[in-house]
Design a protein that fits this description.
heterodimer, A: mainly alpha, 2 strands, 67% helix, B: alpha+beta, Immunoglobulin-like, 2 domains, five-stranded mixed sheet, 10 strands
């Protein structure tokens, strides 16, 4: 393509240079989504092997009755870590990685909107995962089960650092989930190629959008619960301890409020793979596109309303059980719609049966089975019998392996040619599939019966003659067949890197844009950015790969020597601005390293080192925020700027604002969970008491809150006037807002220090203290960031031509004001009006 | 001769039945009304859902290997509506409705609803790491890891925990219920016939979890009274 036009060849070289990762160790500073996504997936695969190894150890121990190869102490660590690794270090991250890797390629963009955030997320994931894993090698791994029920996981019954590894490590890893959730939501909404309206979006993007939003709303309960439990363990604040006015069931509510949506966070992207592959191999468009979109949205909503079905044996009110039973069964409707839409697509298409389709078939067989046992489990009287038995173990493996791993393997074989440019071996692939499929069913189909015959989960050993002997033996044999299947697949993947035949450009004759790319894909994806007129670009415009590569579409090359892609309208996909994206940066790695120091310091409870880590992380993160907009390291003002469309930092509705709003939605969920905890303990905990005298003077709170309101109004006016083109007095106004915010913080801090709180004595004061810390953090953050913006005005990074940044901070001020007054009402006024 | 011809299948059937269902902790070998209801629900769901599963997998295989007759888009739309509305919406909604119509009354029958005084026996069980402390509030009998109950009569087990969360489960008599610190949960059990029934902790509660077992011995009413007399006398 390049020999036609030497000038164009220069432009491609320049594009490559602008988008290249740094050489050598500099590759650690890479931020582009292809590199980061691949790192997520490879790391996830490595953790999968670790988790699998733990499972093999357990199956060895259970193969025969009354074995003592593994002690109950170690067995506790094994099943806890197996669940933890598979859920938190394999399933979620590898799917996030798939999303990060694929989404820009599917929506015709060059990178995600916040590349440094994905790199930061990756390092948090890697370091957090390694910290958790290290506990296993030190023999002090968490051992209270992967859902960490209190009080077993609390300080009294798990005195060692095991639970701390879990709570701190997982919270650290969850930063990566939140990062990916925010990143993917904003990217899918604001970065689609010109003309890709929502109704032209590939289904996979809908699934990933749903997953991302579910992460945004689903993870905060877990993060809050982990923080509360860690604070209870380390500092003795009673949140889950009955004697202090807490309740262990609160942990279960918060955990499963996360835990159930999490199942769909795992399932939806995998279903997205199925919905992508089936039309390709059936050689026709998917049947019922709108039905599927509807069912994705329905699944998202319903999945937040059925967490209690994990708690049917806790002894909660029966009306609630009936409600959650119905909700749990209702989720079968959107799942059913998808399955029958896939069926109809196959029915009306001409199916090419190849290796990915074999895995899709395996998915169907296993997942439908798991779904049906799920409906059984939702029936309360039956649940009372099989809950916490091997029946549940079998069910959850059918759902998770069937619903996630089988489609993921289909996706692996489908996209491997894109990643590597080579085709894997069909015969080795088939052998791997059949070993895996037979091994899986041998292990887990029989396990349903083991559970029905009364074997509880999480027992390290069992008596002979209870009717579990041959079932367990066969399950163990099946487990090893499954492992052999995994080994064959790994060999296949390794061999194909060297011996696989070269893949043609579009080996499966697919319809989506990623197959227009060179293989392996360059870091910038597209030489030029095409316009979308259809849902099936490569079917209807087979010339696209050629025209993209020869620069016939928009934004060809890297004219301004910076990374650029289009930003578009969230609904219509019409181009609105040019996003300039950050290049390689060490800041994500440094910030994540600082947080790793915090994590390890908290583990060994050396709080001064932790503080140093927090300060270091704050410095790196603020520096990161500084190198933005018109900073010389990003997109400084110049006279030959594009105006149609303009650069995003010259507008007032760029991705930063969207990122802020999505972040605040997650943050607000966390806050609502804290309120839920407060009201729950108040109404349910058996030993909860209100203190005799009010802890905070209302007058002091009114003063602090008043200062906050004025600060927020000032900031709001400053942002509004700037957006209208008036920068007079901007810097002074921002300083005033920051100063008033600082005054609000100081008053609140004084009130907190003066309050006669006994946070270790009763959970009322413990929860109240958490609220105050939360409010203090937000007050300080809003003031600090506004002061930073005032400095940026002085430097000329914010001004009439650069009205972008104050608008981004405005929602934070509104949020900070909102949570303060909501806190006053719910934590101070409501109890005062209620309590006798 | 006749006997011989029948013996083999009968033996096989018994063996399969034994292999499949029986066992000292098997939920499929019920010995009380709650467990019997749950087992019945299982068999009903198992039969119905096996059919659904076979039908979906069968349709899928057929759909993959059939050659569609024509590419008529109108026909494709008809198929789309038929599959999605019939299979995706109607099938689950009907199944769920039927299931709940059976399931909700079934669950209701297992609850410890208030009975007339003297109709049920009250036993207090406190779970510890890793044993069950059993107390009869009427007679003051205290035991570890064993319960004695009269057969044919409902027994209300009042569950508490002294430390972490445990779960009280006698699979042949009924479902499980958690013992949660700070609260008292009530589980109703009933054994139809005298006999010995095994129970175990179902919620992971630490390293002794696998060995946290107990037995429930059901006596005839007369034997139960005799057992009570003997126990109370033994204390004197």
């Amino acid at each position: 393509m390049t020999d036609r036009d030497p000038d164009f060849s220069d432009r491609v070289t320049r594009l490559e240079r602008v988008w290249a990762n740094l050489p050598g160790l500099g590759t650690l500073a890479a931020v582009n989504h292809t590199t980061v996504g691949l790192r997520f997936m490879v790391t996830g695969a490595a953790f999968f092997l670790v988790g699998g190894l733990l499972a093999m150890l357990m199956r060895t121990q259970l193969a025969l009755p009354e074995q003592d190869i593994i002690s109950p102490e170690i067995y506790g660590q094994l099943f806890t870590m197996h669940g933890t690794v598979m859920m938190f270090l394999f399933a979620i991250p590898i799917l996030e990685g798939l999303g990060l890797y694929m989404i820009p390629k599917l929506i015709g963009a060059r990178d995600l909107v916040f590349p440094r955030i994905s790199a930061f997320g990756y390092y948090c994931y890697l370091f957090g995962g390694l910290i958790i894993l290290s506990s296993l090698f030190l023999g002090i791994a968490p051992d209270a089960g992967w859902f960490m029920y209190t009080p077993l996981s609390g300080e009294e019954f798990s005195p060692g650092p095991g639970s701390d590894f879990w709570l701190l490590g997982i919270t650290f890893v969850e930063i990566s989930a939140m990062a990916a959730g925010i990143e993917l939501t904003v990217s899918i909404l604001r970065e689609r190629a010109n003309g890709m309206s929502l109704s032209r979006m590939p289904l996979f993007c809908w699934y990933i959008l749903a997953m991302a939003l579910m992460i945004v709303f689903g993870f905060p309960p877990l993060i809050l619960a982990s923080v509360l439990l860690e604070v209870e363990r380390a500092a003795g604040l009673p949140f889950f301890d009955v004697a202090g006015g807490g309740d262990p069931v609160l942990w279960q509510h918060l955990f499963w409020l996360f835990g159930h949506p999490e199942v769909y966070i795992i399932f939806l992207p995998a279903a997205g793979i199925v919905s992508t592959l089936i039309p390709v191999f059936a050689q026709r468009p998917i049947v019922g596109y709108r039905w599927i979109v509807l069912s994705i949205i329905l699944t998202g909503f319903i999945s937040f309303g059925l967490w209690v079905h994990h708690m049917f044996t806790v002894g909660i009110p029966l009306l609630a059980q009936a409600f959650f039973s119905v909700a749990s069964m209702l989720v079968a409707v959107p799942t059913g719609i998808q399955i029958f839409a896939w069926l109809a697509t196959l029915w009306t298409g001409r199916v090419i049966f190849s290796l990915p389709m074999l895995w899709i078939f395996g998915f169907l067989v296993v997942f439908v089975g798991g779904g049906l046992t799920g409906v059984m489990l939702a029936l309360v009287p039956f649940n009372w019998q099989v809950h916490d038995t091997h029946f549940v173990v079998a069910h959850l493996h059918y759902v998770l392996v069937g619903g996630m791993l089988f489609p993921l393997m289909a996706g692996l074989y489908y996209w491997l040619p894109l990643l590597t440019g080579r085709m894997p071996s069909e015969s080795l692939g088939r052998l791997g599939f059949w070993l895996f499929f037979i091994g899986f069913n041998a292990t887990f189909l029989l396990m349903h019966l083991t559970g029905l015959r009364g074997m509880p989960r999480r027992v390290y050993s069992y008596e002979a003659g209870l009717g579990w002997d041959w079932l367990n033996l066969l399950s163990s044999v099946g487990g090893f067949i499954l492992a052999a299947g995994v080994a064959v697949i790994i060999i296949d993947v390794i061999l194909h890197l060297r011996y696989g035949r070269r893949a043609p450009r579009n080996p499966w004759r697919a319809d989506t844009l990623e197959w227009a790319l060179d293989k392996p894909p360059p870091t910038y994806n597209f030489v030029s950015l095409p316009t979308f007129r259809t849902r099936h670009p490569l079917w209807e415009h087979p010339e696209l790969p050629e025209s993209i590569a020869s620069g016939q579409h928009a934004l060809a090359g890297a004219e301004h020597d910076r990374r650029e892609t289009y930003g578009s309208d969230a609904v219509t996909g019409k181009v609105r601005e040019v996003f300039h994206l950050p290049s390689n940066s060490w800041l994500p790695l440094l910030a994540a390293l600082s947080l790793a120091v915090v994590c390890v310091a908290l583990l060994v409870r050396t709080y001064d080192v932790a503080l140093v880590g927090v300060v270091a992380a704050a410095v790196f993160l603020l520096r990161w925020g500084w190198v933005n907009g018109a900073h010389p390291g990003m997109a400084p003002l110049s006279n030959d700027e594009p105006t149609d469309p303009p650069l995003h930092s010259r507008t007032t509705d760029g991705p930063g604002l969207w990122g802020m709003v999505v972040t605040l939605m997650a943050n607000g969920t966390l806050y609502l969970c804290l309120i839920f905890g407060w009201v729950y303990l108040w109404t349910v905990a058996p030993e909860w008491v209100f203190p005799e005298d009010p802890r905070l003077p209302l007058s002091g709170m009114l003063v602090s809150g008043g200062l906050l309101v004025i600060a927020a109004l000032l900031q709001h006016r400053a942002a509004k006037r700037l957006a209208a083109g008036n920068a007079a007095g901007l810097q002074a106004r921002l300083w005033q807002a920051a100063g008033l915010g600082a005054a609000h913080f100081a008053v609140l801090l004084w009130l907190t220090l003066e309050a006669p709180l006994e946070p270790t004595g009763n959970s009322h004061d413990a929860v109240l203290l958490m609220l105050l810390i939360y409010l203090l953090f937000h007050g300080a953050l809003a003031a600090l960031l506004t002061a930073m913006q005032a400095l940026r005005v002085a430097r000329g990074y914010i001004g009439v031509r650069l009205p972008y940044e104050p608008v981004v901070l405005r929602p934070l001020w509104i949020y900070t004001t909102g949570i303060f007054w909501l806190g006053v009402v719910i934590f101070i006024l409501l109890p005062a009006g209620w309590a006798p | 001769m006749m006997f011989r011809r029948l013996a083999a299948p009968m033996l096989l059937g018994t063996l399969l039945g034994l292999a499949g269902c029986s066992g000292p902790l098997s939920t499929l070998d019920p010995a009380g009304p709650s467990a019997a209801t749950a087992a019945l629900l299982w068999w009903g769901m198992f039969a119905a859902f096996s059919l659904v599963w076979l039908a979906v997998v069968g349709l899928w295989l057929y759909a993959m290997f059939r050659q569609p007759a024509s590419d008529d888009p109108a026909r494709a739309r008809r198929i789309e509506k038929r599959w999605i509305i019939g299979g995706g919406v109607a099938l689950p909604v009907v199944s769920i409705t039927v299931l709940l119509a059976y399931g909700i009354p079934a669950g209701h029958s297992m609850l410890p609803l208030p009975l007339d005084k003297g109709e049920s026996l009250e036993i207090h069980v406190t779970a510890h790491q890793w044993y069950w402390e059993v107390m009869y509030p009427e007679s003051g009998i205290a035991l570890d890891d064993e319960l004695h109950i009269p057969a044919g009569k409902p027994v209300d087990v009042h569950l508490r925990s002294a430390d972490v969360i445990h779960s009280f489960w006698v699979p042949r008599l009924g479902g499980k219920l958690d013992a949660v610190p700070g609260r008292t949960n009530v589980q109703r059990l009933q054994a139809d016939e005298p006999g010995s029934y095994r129970g175990q902790c179902a919620e992971y509660c630490g390293v002794g979890h696998a060995h946290m077992k107990f037995t429930v011995t059901a006596h005839t009413p007369e034997d139960f009274e005799a057992w009570k007399r003997q126990e109370t006398q033994g204390d004197d």
